[in-house]
Design a protein that fits this description.
With 436 residues, the protein is α/β, with parallel strands linked by helices. The protein has two domains: 140 residues; 218 residues, P-loop containing nucleotide triphosphate hydrolases (Rossmann fold), CATH 3.40.50.300. It contains 16 helices and twelve strands. Helix 7 packs across helix 8. The mean pLDDT is 88. Keywords: ATP-binding, DNA-binding, Nucleotide-binding.
Length: 436
């Protein structure tokens, strides 16, 4: 089963986007090779839903964080070798010999460069094999070849560089030797070499991501089976903010809804996005911007932060919000374990309707104990009505401290419901009314 996160959620949390400098993908995309970038993209598109797989990947990142090494291969060499292998070779040696002979003859007669390109491809592959051999010996000497994330890579490298058919490769080769080597590399060992390249890209991702985690002070989450039905996080921050204020959050089957209040600019949206990003990255097995995180595996995450209207369909902003709530309600009602974020429910309608709808929807969601919800609103009066619904709702707020007429924000959660409203103060401080 795939982890669920639709386009709205991915956009709300700015998770994807190679060309978006502010995306979470870009934060981790400091790899040097195209192969590693493709793998990183795949990891972002397909979070995991198995606790053991998540913990295994986290352990691999942690290993390289504890034992940092620079990535030992050049991007150009890996890329050219991959291109050489993709071309392949004939399925039998006589045909391979005939093909390379034709290319050499064409090079002599009509100055065709195909033969030189073939020789360069072989040379690049041989050079990379020498690098593999050196690294393999180093890993074996240091005892990293067993019971470490290097183990699969080591096994793959051994099966190639220690094969008798690839021993004693000289730089000077006859046409027959060149054809034989091309046949071995691009046909006989093609699949093994491609698999080893894939493992090499995986190692690069481990090295790069763990280095970023160490530099930024991220930690690694512990995944639990779905039936545990808990999520406990300490020191949650937004990974894109270097000076973010940490907060602590906790959910379980008996306390599955967080009702969040606070004035404009108090930090509600940032906190909710930070939590959603943390949940998503945790299911990838990636480091998270938190001091600690322990969580039960979920089926997916849904958010409603920046719901756009749809002029083509004639949907107003409010109707788009209603459809988003309907979509989430259908998924929740399908017995899925989900993390749900609603930032300012029903802000596209009048205060009375927004009050009634927020109250009804929030109260209804408390019944789905296998799902966790964060619901924010400016309509703090809803919180007072929700207190009669039982103990399944947590009430927390982000406070505002007034210094004269200037609001200051702590960005630190407190228990309870705030009545802070500083909208008009901010408007007056900006001198808008004086302009008018």
């Amino acid at each position: 089963m795939s982890f669920i996160a639709d386009k709205q959620t991915l956009d709300d949390l700015s998770l994807l986007g190679k060309y978006n400098a502010n995306s979470i993908f870009s934060l981790f995309n400091q790899v040097k090779t195209r192969g590693a970038e493709k793998l990183l993209d795949t990891m972002f598109l397909h979070p995991l839903t198995d606790a053991d797989q998540i913990n295994a990947r986290s352990a691999a990142f942690r290993y390289f964080g504890d034992q940092p090494i620079p990535f030992p291969f050049e991007e150009q060499l890996l890329g050219s070798t991959e291109a050489f292998l993709d071309e392949g070779s004939n399925s039998n040696f006589p045909l391979a010999l005939w093909q390379i002979s034709r290319k050499k003859l064409a090079a002599l007669l009509v100055k065709d460069d195909a033969y030189e390109l073939q020789l360069q491809g072989i040379a690049n592959c041989v050079q990379l094999l020498k690098g593999f051999t050196t690294l393999l010996g180093q890993l074996e000497k240091e005892g990293r070849d067993k019971n470490t994330p290097w183990e699969k890579w080591v096994a793959g490298a051994r099966s190639i560089v220690r094969d008798k058919r690839l021993q004693n490769i000289n730089d000077e080769r006859s046409l027959l030797q060149t054809a034989r080597l091309h046949y071995l590399l691009a046909h006989v060992f093609q699949d093994k070499l491609k698999a080893l390249l894939a493992l090499t890209y995986e190692i690069e991702v481990y090295i790069t991501v763990s280095g970023i985690a160490k530099a930024k002070g991220f930690s690694y989450a512990k995944a639990l089976p779905k039936e545990k039905n808990v999520l406990a996080a300490k020191g949650v921050k937004h990974p894109g903010l270097d000076k973010a204020v940490p907060n602590t959050l906790s959910f379980n089957g008996n306390s599955n809804v967080l009702f969040l209040t606070g004035a404009n600019m108090a930090g509600k949206s940032t906190l909710m996005k930070a939590t959603g990003i943390m949940v998503y990255l945790a299911h990838m097995g990636f480091p998270v911007a938190a001091q600690e995180l322990e969580f039960s595996v979920l089926d997916g995450i849904y958010s409603s932060v920046n719901v756009p209207d749809d002029l083509n369909r004639g949907y107003s902003h409010f109707y788009a919000e209603v459809l988003r709530v309907k979509k989430v309600a259908e998924e929740v009602d399908a017995d899925k374990h989900l993390f749900v974020i609603f930032d300012e429910l029903f802000k596209g309608t009048n205060v009375k309707d927004a009050y009634d709808a927020t109250l009804a929807v929030t109260a209804a969601f408390t019944a789905f104990r296998d799902c966790f919800f964060i619901i924010s609103t400016h309509i703090f009066e809803v919180g007072d009505a929700l207190k009669t619904e039982g103990d399944h709702i947590q009430f927390e707020f982000l406070p505002t401290i007034m210094e004269g007429t200037v609001p200051k924000y702590t960005y630190t959660l407190q228990k309870g419901i705030t009545t802070d409203r500083q909208g008009m103060i901010i408007i007056e401080n900006e001198g808008i009314l004086d302009m008018l």
